[in-house]
């Protein structure tokens, strides 16, 4: 295993442990049980996504490698949707299943494109852009909570990490798409 594979494996193991912790926490969470269950789903799906990405790096044929990457990306988006739903539930913000289903449909479509020759970079671009939008939805929920419920003087500070994550995802999307155009 390469250093990247070891890092992915360690991250997958940590996420698997966190999934168990969130499941145990959900038993005692009371009114926040649903949020804790979403976060358990995030951790478990993240672990599975990392395992699929490790397997892709070990793949023997291009179609196997791209198929595993595509599955890892799809499950990764499902993970981030679970994270966003947990955050929204925790701060009493609404979520709409149609946006979640649209994000999944976009990534499934991008994954199909990624299976074509030279389609991998476009898959990464679309996946990363979609993840950026999910982080933006989390930032919106956190900002509204900080402003309306917590009455913080600087509510944007609670949302800032999600805005940074969205910017990083969009930067990755842009570099992936532009590098394929060369």
Describe this protein with a few key phrases.
182 residues, mainly alpha, 84% helix
Concise overview:
With 182 residues, the protein is mainly α.
Description:
With 182 residues, this protein is mainly alpha-helical. Helix content is 84%, strand content 0%. The protein has six helices and no strands. α1 runs antiparallel to α2 (33-57) and α3 packs antiparallel against α4 (97-114). The protein is globular, with a radius of gyration of 17 Å. The two termini are 31 Å apart. The mean pLDDT is 91.
H and E string: HHHHHH
Strand content: under 5%
The low-confidence parts are none
- Which radius of gyration do the C-alpha atoms yield? 17 Å
**Helix proportion of residues, in percent?**
over 70%
Q: How many beta strands in the DSSP annotation?
A: 0
Described by strand count, sense and barrel closure, the largest sheet is:
none
Structural class based on helices, strands and sheet pairing: mainly alpha
